Amino acid sequence: MTDSQDFSNLSNRRRMTALILLTLTVFAIGTAELLPMGLLLPIATETKVSISTTGMLVTGYALGVVIGGPVLSALAGRLPRKTVLSVFLLVFIIGSIVCTAAPSYGLLLAGRVISSLAHGTLFGMIVVTAKNLAQPGKEGKSIALVGSGLTVSVILGAPLGTLLGQHLGWRFPFLVISLLSAAALLGIMKQLPPLPRSKGGSLKGQLRIVSRPDFLLVLLITIFGTGGTFAGFTYITPILERITGFSSDSVTIILLVFGAGSLLGNIAGGSLADKRLVPTLFGGLILLAVSMAVFTWSSHSKAAAVISVFIWGVAAYSIIPALNMLVLNKAGDAQELASTLNISAFNLGNAIGAFIGGLVIDSTLGLAAVPWVASVVTLLGIVLAIWSVILEKNRKCDRLPEYPFENRTA
Length: 410
Known about the structure:
The chain is mostly helical. It has 17 helices and no strands.
């Protein structure tokens, strides 16, 4: 019996309540991850450290997600998923409380690391749970719904947190995140049905699955797909100000346009992935590569730049539900560990993309070349996706479909 069958008798109301609670959790975690980016100056001033040192609050968090998520997910073993969700959300809350009360930079960084260790496992568990809670044939929509919490954290949560921090002190947003997460925890403990872990897979067996070349290839698609987005998006503000000629106030509005596009792309990508997974992934990756390449030229025109940014947002987030579903379809009995590894791949892609963009800016190519280089990074993701499909077809021809795509995704 699969986990999804265990949930077949759930009422639509309880199913939706559970998904909303998971979405709220994703929103809180996503907002917390981004908070220091808008509060570097006040944090640096109060804690008496340099801005570059304060930036470790972002870098340290990302490393905690990449390293801690897979390790802790594996150590959690076969504990019921509801238990794991509750425990790790509690750990995340403890980290946020430490950040709120931290009297020094060292304790603030420690609080960030504590929260980051829970981040990867929580996201991985939430994606798998969203898939299991979905009605048959609507897994992509369910994953897209909880994923929208991350999108809203980018376009609303982080800016609002920055605003609160600037007027009420940088600790106040961390307190709000703590309270919001506590509310989500209480709701999950009360409303989420019992969630057993995937059956039949020992830790050794799960490690065998996630170390397979074809599975690692899917993780590379995630790294380069998201890496392309963040190679460009990390530096979109200086591009819009210095090349396009927008004011800083106008850039804020344009970022909301990107956010609106990403929300639409996430919803559309989830719906389309339920019908045709592989074509949805390829379509999104191609649109992403093209939109960023076009932005190299459209960034010289204000109207064209706004249109390009919107399409860029749609494309960037349309691939996320498809990537999550692809990983789960390849994971067999390693659903939770595989999903957590994919979250680590997302974060690694973000870090690599931002690093590549920085190298381009410091090179003779300069700021104007960032969009087309970002497009090239995504093209690598497309090549890897083609390779993955070829390997899958060869495996089917050889009659060795150990972890094939579902029929509807072919």
